[in-house]
Structures are given as C-alpha cells and as structure tokens.
Amino acid sequence: MTNQETITKLNEALNTLIKAYEELQNENTLLEEKIDNLNKDKKELEVKVTSLEDKNRNLEDNVNELNDSTEKQNNNINSMLGKIENLLGSKKNPNKYEKDNNKFDSREKGTFIKEEDNSKNSSLDQILEEEIDNTSANFRESSSNSENKIDLNRMASLLNGFNN
C-alpha cells in the first residue's frame, strides 16, 4: 500500500468515527433531555403524593372526629334514654312493657299497640296514663331537689313527642 492509499483509508476511518461520535452525542443529548423531563415529572409526582398524603391525614382526622362525635352523641342519647326510662319508672316495673311485643303507634296519640293482640289497647292506655302521672309526680319531687333539677317544660315537650 502506498502512503496515499493509507491516508485515504485512515481519512475514511476517521470520518466514520466522527459520524459515530456525533450520533452518540445526539443520542446522549436526547437521553439527558429525557432524564431531565423524567426528573421534573418525578418532582411533580412527589408534590402530588405529599398533597394526597396531607389530604388523607385530614380525612382521617375528620373521620376520627366524626367517630368521636357519633360516639358522644350515642352516649348522650343512651344517657337520655336511661334518664327517661328512670323517669317513666322502668326500673321499678321492668316487665311492665315488653319491647319486642309492643310498639308505639304514631297515628293514635299516646297509645301502645301489642302486635299480637290489639284488644289490650285500653289497658295499655291506662298504663301509659299511670306512667305519665308517675312522671309528673317524679317531676314535682325532682324539682324540689336542687341537684337533680329538671326543666319541666322540656320534659313535657318530650312526653308530648311520645304522644304524637
């Protein structure tokens, strides 16, 4: 081989290497741009995850507050029902009413109807009137006691609610 042929071949090899280097450089630039875009997306997703975690914590706090509130309301309702039962004398005569067999009929004011036998309406009306009288007597007694002072108007409205 002559010097001229060697130089030509070296020149061709060098041009091929330069082309390959330029292609690799372009690919490298494209990959770096993709990496930058992916990093930006990653940061945006991290911000969204943080935001969602905060919202989740807030929702969990709200659920806990609602559960606490519901529990307190249930306790208050149970306490009120217990007090009303005490006022109505349920502890004195626990078998007087059978919860499973009696239900309140809102169509007839203040009457209890036995699901199995409607013929006992009059006796149940009498029992209810006796309980109302007992409750009135309990109101009079408790109004004299300063520790257990009861708002008579409120209890009367509660009893009227039972009569509707």
Task: Please explain how this structure is put together.
The protein has a two-stranded antiparallel sheet with strand order 1-2. A hairpin with a 5-residue loop joins strand 1 and strand 2. It has helices spanning 3-88, 121-144, 152-163; strands at residues 102-105, 111-114. The N and C termini lie far apart (120 Å). 74% of the residues lie in helices and 5% in strands. Mean pLDDT is 77; it is low at 93-119. It contains three helices and two strands, in the order H-E-E-H-H. It has 164 residues and is mainly α.
Q: Quick gist of this model?
A:
The protein is mainly alpha-helical. Helix content is 74%, strand content 5%. The protein is built from three helices and two strands.
